[in-house]
Automatic annotation (TrEMBL):
Gene3D superfamilies given in the database record: Antioxidant, Horf6, Chain A, domain2, Glutaredoxin
Alphabetical list of NCBIfam families matching this protein: PRK13189.1
N-terminal signal peptide: none
Record-annotated active site: 45 (cysteine sulfenic acid (-soh) intermediate)
UniProt keywords, alphabetically: Antioxidant, Oxidoreductase, Peroxidase, Redox-active center
Name of this chain's protein: Alkyl hydroperoxide reductase subunit AhpC (Peroxiredoxin)
Species in which this protein is naturally found: Chryseobacterium shigense
GO MF annotation terms: peroxiredoxin activity
Top-level taxon of origin: Bacteria
GO biological process, one term: cell redox homeostasis
Family, per entry: Belongs to the peroxiredoxin family. Prx6 subfamily. Belongs to the peroxiredoxin family. AhpC/Prx1 subfamily.
Amino acid sequence: MSIKLGDTAPNFQAETSLGDIKFHEFLGDSWGILFSHPADYTPVCTTELGYTSKLKSEFDQRETKVIALSVDGVEDHQNWIKDINETQNTDVQFPIIADKDRRISELYDFIHPNASLTATVRSLLIIDPDKKVRLIITYPASTGRNFNEILRVLDSLQLVDSHKVATPVNWENGEDVIIPPAISTEDARKIFPKGVTEIKPYLRYTPQPNT
């Protein structure tokens, strides 16, 4: 199965380091981040989970739940979390899915045979409150993900859902945003009271609307 942007994230039941879950119930009305790891007790994964744990307050502010997945079992997850907490100076509070039979990994297309027949690649999905997949990003096993970029995209998605805007290259929260071409400049001046800067008829900026 290949999941594409706009698809409904498949539901599943699973064991995790924090007990059994039903995925859609776990997400509730929140945004969600589901990300896979090649294996427990691996160095890059240890740094990723540690850093993600340190971002807990950032995800809480964005009403976003985080859940990881690895093809190892619950006991390994729980013991590995102790290592993560020790080496990364944190306290991992989000669940890690146990997927020893690779059922969920195959459901979400997290195993790429040309990379590994058994381990998951570093895939990450952002899922909105309607359970729609809004971002899919996949890294090679040797490269740790940039979770500051994940926060940036999350900010963009939440802003775009609240206002009729788009975000430009390298946009950061608080910077000017782009007015989509479907909105005329005349209408834009009514919609965006902070002002409209027209560079070209198709390229117009406005200060970020209040969120």
